[in-house]
Amino acid sequence: MTGMATDSRVQRDGVVLGVLSLAAFMASLDVFIVNVAFDDIGRDFDGPGLSQLSWILNAYTIIYAALLVPAGRLADRYGRKGSFLLGLAIFVAASAACAASSGIWMLVAFRAVQAVGAAILTPASLGLVVAAAAPHLRARSVRIWAATGALAAALGPAVGGVLVEISWRWVFIVNIPIGVAALIAAAVVVPRSRDETVTKMPDVLGAVLLAVAIGALTLALVEGSDWGWTDARIVAAWATTVVALIGFIARSGRHPSPIIDPILIRVRAFSFANLTAVLFSIPFAASLLANILWMQQIWGYSAVRTGFAVVPGPLMVPLFTVVGHKLASRIPVGVIVALGCALMACSSLLISLQVGQEPSYVTDLLPSLLIGGAGIGLALPTILSSATSDLPPSQTATGSAVVNMSRQIGTALGVSLLVAVLGTPRGFGEAHPAFQHAWWALAAVAVLAALVAPAMSPARVRTD
User: Fold this and answer.
1) Is 353 exposed, middle or buried (0-12, 13-18, 19+ CB in 10 A)?
2) 42 Cβ contact list (under 8 Å, min separation 6)
3) Are both 10 and 99 inside the same structural domain?
4) pLDDT digits (tens, 9 = 90+) for 73-129
5) CA distances from 183 to 93, 129, 130 (A)
6) Are residues 67 and 185 in the same domain?
7) What's the longest Cα–Cα distance across the chain?
8) What is the number of domains present in the chain?
9) Which of 192, 262, 267, 282 has CA atoms 20 to 30 A from the CA of 356?
């Protein structure tokens, strides 16, 4: 009877893990799936420029980044299942609104609402995974949950390309049946959970100040080339960035439950892991978008061809994740991350030197994608798995949320940097040097990440 009860518990836990991972997969997929839809969205909305289209990505990543930590704290305090269901419901409703949008800024607004839902459901789902799993299976369950993010990155462009062949609106419509099914399943099978030790309200104003700082910085980078770098609006955006950032730092020092606890920042490995995460995510996000824009706008690839052309890079990620895991027993994790970032820099430099006006995917683009994918496989999982190693167990969940926040900040900055460097080139004669400059800039950031990464090696490394 005991064996039957154990088998039943394992099966139930597996169903719970599957439901929660599915929802987290959807939230991650929406960061990557939209890239290949840019051209079709632009044509449908009478040709907005890249600087406007980039807000479809940036609105999502900025809001997602700013709300991850406070949403996780609220879920711990008031109940993770209720938070998860609320976040998933918001995400599904916003997806339907995105699909029905009649203009670029309406779409951007509903993408921001979508990000609110994603920010609520993501930490709640992780908390539910940890609470539902048997203690000896907890680490395994968390790894499976986290792997859905890498799977979303691998499948996002390909799935997006197939859906865009029908209509770009299907990029959002596909979330509705999956989300509704996940809602029903979660309501039935996911057990309730909350952290009784969490009694303080998180610093919501601090989260708002962080979002304003990131948003103003993104605005300045994205619109600077179009509006003029000395335009009053750009100057105001820079000033807003500085004031909001100072306000955020001041709030973090005084609030009893800050978004980023100053105590965490004083942990050297954790601080450098977050800095590395930001720097790594800049070329990670921007390179994907740059490659897609090149294939669609210069080589004339369709959305579905572009999506499948991107796939070989992400397919290298799980292979080199295993390589990185094996290397971690012999060399410091910071060195592994540095090697991954160096490979990403080589990838950007190689593509900048190889690509020409005539499509030559196998010789010009594929080698760069494979090298970049190998670099991501070494760097990203290592950052995520080791960043919190030097934190006390009570701070691990918050530390993980902060690292994911840093990744989203880097993503927004990467897209903004790409848009700022590319500008609005006309014809191959202007586009080629603009893309080259963008790839060089991304390579430079990847080199900087490689130089910073060794300092993130923790004093102790968890074996789970």
Assistant:
1) exposed
2) 48, 53
3) yes
4) 788 777 888 888 999 999 999 999 999 999 999 999 999 999 999 888 888 887 788
5) 12, 16, 19
6) yes
7) 75
8) 3
9) 282
